Amino acid sequence: MTQDPKSAGGDYKEKIEIFLSCQDLVSKDMFSKTDAFVVDSKTGKFEEIGRTETIKLRVTSSHYKKHMDILFQNLFFFNIFFFAVHVNERDEYNPSFGKSFVVDFAFEEEQEVRFDVYDQDKNNAKSLKGQDFIGCCNMTLGEIMHASGNLYIFLFNDVVILQMTRMLLHKGKSMKNGSTKMCSRLTARIEVVAKCGHEGIVITFGGEHLASMDFFGKSDPFLEIYRMTNTQPLLVYRTEKIDNTEKPVWKPITISSQELCNSDPDRSLLLRVLDWDSNGSHELIGEVKTTLNALRKNFNVELENGKKKGKKVGTLKVVEFRSTPFFSFLDYVMGGIDLSLMVAIDFTASNGKPSHSQSLHHLSAQGTQYQLALRTIANTVSCYDSDQRFPVWGFASKKIVHFFSINFLLVLCTPCVGNKGGKIPHGDVMHVFPLNGNDMNPEVRGVYGIEEAYLNALAKVELFGPTLFYPILKKAVTLQRWLIPTSNIKLNITLC
Description:
This protein is α+β, with helices and mostly antiparallel strands. The chain is built from eight helices and 26 strands.
């Protein structure tokens, strides 16, 4: 019986996708724009990796059309993550985030998450200082993944969606929205990322004969795409608005199938076309449900609006659709890719004299540190090299008399870059040289041949310097151009 590698020891990490939303948020300002961030880090040192668009929130007239700015700080104490998003939502105090986050869930680790919610007072400010703190909540990924506590599990077309909601606390106390009289809350929804079937998608949507939702002029339409569940749809993308038109063509959307439908081409999607309003009270023009598979096939459908039954509100169509499969390394290997390993060994004096036990070139019973590294990496990569022949060079050393062949000495006597036509004197620094002494064919056979050439060179060169990578990288690039195959795909790897 073959053992599942996941249960055979070692870390097991599953990729999960997190969607965030808030309910009944308290308002801190009279007027402001929506500009939200989600920050994840185990060290408290934040490193931003992305932001979504900014759209105003709509609030009730009883609160003078206030617009709230919300800023989220999401702190992983045991895993380093960082995200920044601009929040958007039309519904009063309940923003739903179109930006989702894919993170690793490690069963054996306690991955505690803290969400800090801020009302942003400074536009485009990367620092949290000066932002108005609303509240925070804590949960662990383990609590969400394991059906316990304030958790709900939704099954949708055999897809498990996990959800946890927590109250937001300010100085240890819950807060109530002045209008709804409900406590402010944050909801995290999780879906396990599909392991196969990923592809990159570029899709351009357009509309025709879109109904005007304004008293004067035409609509300012934009498009939202939702991934359907049996409860609240998950917003995955929102386009830009196009002013005053009934025939919009939005900018091409570049998205992965995982982001769009978790790589399920038959997963139901909701497409909504809305008329943009400056106060955030965007009005629905029409919507339609579809799938990724349907979008591929000359998609052109009538939009529906439940409030305007029997009245045409326009059509939505796909102007262009392109997809490119995402291949794994295993896919390439099974497809016949060949890895060509090139090795360059550092003979800089900073490595220490080989006679000293602390030197990386010191020969112990197990070999030098370079040999140990070679065995670890080269033994793995060599399995995917069909001819088992590897070019091996050294750099940053001085040559000792009688080491290399006459042919190699002739090569060294040619003009070098930066010497303006001069010759390389005997004994000067060699910034790139073949360990087998043959500049026309620096290859050796097998990993054993790499070690043999290395030890032979180590005994016959003087460690020197400085460490210059450009000459060796230039040599590797030049050689790989000569070795480009006519049929099989070849990936060249240079190990320095």
